[in-house]
Automatic annotation (TrEMBL):
Domain Transketolase-like pyrimidine-binding stretches: 599-812
Cell division listed as a keyword: no
Protein name: 2-oxoglutarate dehydrogenase-like, mitochondrial
Organism: Aquila chrysaetos chrysaetos
UniProt catalytic activity: N(6)-[(R)-lipoyl]-L-lysyl-[protein] + 2-oxoglutarate + H(+) = N(6)-[(R)-S(8)-succinyldihydrolipoyl]-L-lysyl-[protein] + CO2
A single BP term in Gene Ontology: glycolytic process
InterPro entries listed in its UniProt record: 2-oxogl_dehyd_N (IPR032106), 2oxoglutarate_DH_E1 (IPR011603), DH_E1 (IPR001017), KGD_C_sf (IPR042179), ODO-1/KGD_C (IPR031717), THDP-binding (IPR029061), Transketolase-like_Pyr-bd (IPR005475)
Family: Belongs to the alpha-ketoglutarate dehydrogenase family.
Main enzyme class: oxidoreductase
Domain of life: Eukaryota
Coiled-coil residues: none
One Pfam family cited in the UniProt record for this chain: OxoGdeHyase_C
KW Metal-binding (keyword) present: yes
Length: 971
């Protein structure tokens, strides 16, 4: 290596910016030249031999006192980037005293070795920062490698002989080395012996905490983490903090023990093996409250949920114990859900900070990670309504299992929402309960990445692995995680490496599949006893105090158990994850229409949204390309054609006191984004929250959210939700992935009874809507679309609304509505009856065709072509579910001698036929058939061949108007 390269490398090692290197080298050279020009005649200081100045620099790096004071000052100034002082050369002494006093005549090889050793030490420090977590003692059982690999990186000094990797030797261990600015292991010292450097690196990176952060591309963030963990003595706790930690562990463990004693044969999905999670969460909440957080929204899978409800959210214990009563009656409303899926909302005083804190734990189905985007959506909404744009008042905490965190794609989708402007919640703290096992699947068979948390690296989130049997290490990591989130507003992951004391549930026998692990688990001393013994040994608590703490909590549990016997009926309000005060008030006033104009679909939507904004109702529209609209019909965001990123949302500038309109293109995600919007809609009933699929077919990838949350959410958790799904739908020859929103799936999950003949009353429509699990509509007019959106907010309750929206009808000349159909006094039409020639002579009508959506326009056109406007009536079902029994009964009675036909453009095994057929037959008491007209059954939702599409369209239109088609057939 040349002298110049060595010199530059040394400067680089010393943390000097690239642009300063050449300037420093130049000034060192000039300093030597000026020394020559000051009158000395010694040949070794001639310009040709100025390399000795470099050697002085190397000597100074090793020991600043080894050079003359003037050179020491110069090198300090040069390192600090200060200007050259012209008076420095005058302070230099003559050569003889200089050599005699400081011994500068070093050989080039010696100087080269010095620089190489310094560079080696820097590389060593960096190796621990990058890879130290691979050898950290993370597994409480001591039998597994948290990173699934027992290999020890060759650049970590685990044995003396590994010093050779860096060209160092045992004799170098007591040498003192200058520390670079990229480490804080020295504390107030800027140099340490190699032996001490290695010791401190091992203490920081290779004990019970494993840090992954060096992939972060922000220097400030890396330095912040290094300072938090490398600085000597940072992880210290007062005796009071230790006693609080012990008390929290007591509550966590004794709660599980109590459930195990009282309900040994019940599934509880207990927290045994990771009891430290309770104090960990409370530490995060305490620290966050201290920094100003007022509302924490949490989501988690089932493991440990009851413990979190009891000891973090602080739900009444009798309400939890009541859930175990086998004679428990059904709730007032809905089918309910298992106790370890339910949620909770609670406002209380945080004892650590004496500040008010609101905690919400979201209900979650067995689809472990499905709740992630829902939590984020609700958090975003709460921040929005509080004006908390920086996330300083509202935050989210997500808990995960290790197998699900690595295996379920919604985790990745949720992470990718974390920094998008319309979706960010300004940082989430993720806590992974890392059992090191799935149900029965070994992690080596369950993931390809070293850690289950590796997905978080995609957004540069720091990952703090920690041994869950070291409570103090866990508390420190959680405290730092809370500070990180508050400081940088970025996600952070705490990986609690633990074990599962029992099987997947309490009825499961894990020894069948993990014998080695569970032999060790059966011998494992519980974390509470370990920590209590430690505190008793060092005098922090006495054995008597510890036993009294246990007895006190056991007594609390027993008293709550007694009270639960008197509480046979569960009050479901105790399990709601957020309140909706004042929902019974029906919103009044509608936008007054003053001009008699015609509107298309897009303008009707615009007017519906605008009417809400004027009334103070927030409107949020989200999905892929919704700002413009997939079919270029919306244009709610206008772009400056000359200035990049300069946009305008006109709807936000209509009235001075209007509500805000949020329209935002989402990431290319359905599962994650729909979950997010569902959560957003949960926060307030006084908002219209819409998610639009790019094509209706694409809701397939969000089916879990639809099945587990939207369809059944009210039945399971008594959670009303008014989210609107806009699903573009229509058979137009565009293939099976761009045609069908699969209406049959939504109808199949509708909860109305096809065989029950209802009792009709003046309130039939409202009572139907109140009792249904959701509403499915396929509007054929812009006015009806306008009204169904309006009805969504005007109702005194909330139901999910599924709208099969059009594609070709967006610009169809006949698909227009007059303002007269939208002014005050007009409403949503569940059924649009025939109003043409056939309606004026109903007894002469030979056929009534019932249909929904776009096919109506095909039928009207064909009827006119065949001149059958008197013989054939066409009636539209705008609301398919709940089924409009009352209005259709009137239509059926109006045409007593006509054939009844259901016509749809979808295939027979999809669409609406299987849903409407039994309901029509119920209305007529099975006395008249309802014939099917449409495409034949098919495996794919639609054809992608335009000609095939047109041929099949022609075929079923011919059948629909063949008035002899069903003669002689039986049903």
């Amino acid at each position: 290596m040349s002298r110049l390269k060595l010199f530059v490398a040394t400067l680089k090692w010393h943390g000097i910016k690239l642009l300063e290197k050449q300037d420093i080298a130049r000034r060192v050279f000039l300093h030597g030249q000026r020394y020559v020009s000051s009158g000395t005649s010694e040949p070794f200081l001639s310009a040709s031999n100025s390399n000795y100045v470099e050697e002085m620099y190397y000597a100074w790096l090793e020991n600043p006192k080894s050079v003359h004071k003037s050179w020491d000052v110069f090198f300090q100034n040069a390192n600090a980037g200060q200007a050259y002082d012209p008076h420095l050369p005058d302070q230099l002494e003559r050569k003889a005293s200089f050599l005699q006093s400081h011994g500068l005549a070093q050989t080039p090889g010696k100087a080269e070795k010095l620089v190489e050793d310094h560079l080696a030490v820097q590389s060593l420090i960096r190796a621990y920062q990058i890879r130290g977590h691979h050898v950290a003692q993370l597994d409480p059982l001591g039998i597994l490698d948290a990173d699934l690999d027992s290999f020890v990186p060759s650049d970590l000094i685990t044995t003396i002989d590994k010093l050779g990797f860096y060209g160092l030797h045992e004799s170098d261990l007591d040498k003192v080395f200058q520390l670079p600015t990229t480490t804080f292991i020295g504390g107030s010292e800027n140099s340490l012996s190699l032996r001490e450097i290695i010791k401190r690196l091992e203490n920081t990176y290779c004990q019970h905490i494993g840090l992954e952060f060096m992939f972060i591309n922000d220097v400030e963030q890396c330095q912040w983490i290094r300072q938090k963990f490398e600085t000597p003595g940072v992880m210290k706790f007062t005796n009071e903090e230790k006693r609080t930690l012990l008390a929290r562990l007591v509550r966590s463990m004794r709660f599980e023990d109590f459930l195990a004693r009282k309900w040994s044969s019940e599934k509880r999905f207990g927290l045994e093996g990771c009891e430290v999670m309770i104090p960990a969460l409370k530490t995060i909440i305490d620290k966050s409250s201290e920094m100003g957080i007022e509302y924490v929204i949490m989501g988690m899978p089932h493991r440990g949920r009851l413990n979190v409800l009891a000891n973090v959210i602080r739900k009444e214990l009798e309400q939890i114990f009541c859930q175990f009563d086998p004679k428990l009656e059904a709730a007032d409303e809905g089918s309910g859900d298992v106790k370890y899926h339910l949620g909770m909302y609670h406002e209380r005083i945080n004892r650590a900070t004496n500040k008010k804190i609101t905690l919400s734990l979201m209900a979650n189905p067995s689809h472990l990670e499905a709740v992630d985007p829902v939590v984020q959506g609700k958090t975003k909404a709460e921040q929005f309504y509080r004006g908390d744009t920086a996330g300083k008042k509202v935050m989210s905490i997500l808990l995960h299992g290790d197998a699900a965190f690595a295996g379920q794609g919604v985790v990745y989708e949720t992470f990718h929402l974390s920094d998008l402007p319309s979706y960010t919640t300004n940082g989430t703290i993720h806590v992974v309960v890392n059992n090191q096992i799935g149900f029965t699947t070994d992690p080596r068979m369950a993931r390809s990445s070293p850690y289950p948390t590796d997905v978080a690296r995609v957004v540069n989130a720091p990952i703090f692995h920690v041994n869950a049997d070291d409570p103090e290490a866990v508390m420190y990591v959680c405290s730092v995680a809370a500070e990180w989130r508050n400081t940088f507003n970025k996600d952070v992951v705490v990986d609690l490496v633990c074990y599962r004391r029992r099987g997947h549930n309490e009825m499961d026998e894990p020894m069948f599949t993990q014998p080695l692990m569970y032999k060790q688990i059966h011998k494992q001393v519980p974390v509470l006893k370990k920590y209590a013994d430690k505190l008793i040994a060092d005098g922090t608590v006495t054995l008597q105090e510890f036993e009294e703490e246990i007895a006190k909590y056991d007594r609390i549990c027993e008293e709550a158990y007694t009270r639960s016997k008197d509480n046979k009926i569960l009050h479901i309000k105790h399990w709601l994850d957020s309140p909706w005060p004042g929902l019974s008030r029906i919103l009044r006033a509608r936008l007054e229409m003053t001009k008699n104009r015609v509107v298309d679909w897009a303008l009707a939507e615009y007017m519906a949204f605008g009417s809400f904004l004027k009334e103070g109702i927030h409107v949020r529209l989200s999905g892929q390309d919704v700002e413009r609209g997939t079919f270029s019909h919306r244009h709610h965001v206008l772009h400056d054609q000359e200035v990049d990123k300069r946009t305008c949302v006109p709807m936000n500038h209509l009235w001075e006191q209007q509500a805000p309109y949020t329209v935002c293109n989402s990431s290319l995600s359905e599962y994650g984004v729909l979950g997010f919007e569902l959560g957003f809609a949960m926060a307030s009933p006084n908002a219209l929250v819409c998610w639009e699929a790019q094509f209706g077919d694409f809701h397939n990838t969000a089916q879990c959210i639809i099945d587990q949350f939207i369809s059944s959410g009210q039945a399971k958790w008594v959670r009303h939700n008014g989210i609107v799904l806009l699903l573009p739908h229509g058979m137009e020859g565009m293939g099976p992935e761009h045609s069908s929103a699969r209406p049959e799936r939504f109808l199949q999950m509708s909860n109305d009874d096809s065989d029950a003949y209802p009792e009709f009353s003046e309130q039939f429509e409202v009572s139907q809507l109140y009792e249904c699990n959701w509403i499915v509509v396929n509007c054929s007019t812009p006015a009806n679309y306008f009204h169904v959106l309006r009805r969504q907010i005007l109702l005194p309750f909330r139901k999910p609304l599924i709208i099969l929206t059009p594609k070709s009808l967006l610009r169809h000349p006949e698909a227009k509505s007059s303002f007269d159909e939208m002014v005050s006094g007009t409403t949503f039409q569940r059924v649009i009856p025939e109003n043409g020639l056939a309606a004026h002579a109903p007894h002469e009508v030979k056929r009534v065709i019932f249909c929904t959506g776009k096919v109506y326009y095909d039928l009207v056109k064909e009827r006119k072509n065949q001149d059958l406007e008197k013989q054939v009536a066409i009636t539209r079902l705008e609301q398919i579910s709940p089924f409009p029994f009352d209005l259709l009964k009137e239509e059926l009675e109006k045409y007593p001698g006509a054939d009844l036909v259901w016509c749809q453009e979808e295939h027979k095994n999809s669409g609406y036929y299987d849903y409407v057929k039994p309901r029509f037959r119920t209305i007529v008491n099975h006395t008249r058939p309802i014939w099917y007209v449409g495409r034949e059954p098919a495996a794919a939702a639609a054809t992608g061949n335009k000609n095939t599409h047109l041929v099949s369209l022609r075929r079923f239109l011919d059948t629909a108007f063949n008035l002899e088609a069903f003669e002689g057939k039986t049903f």
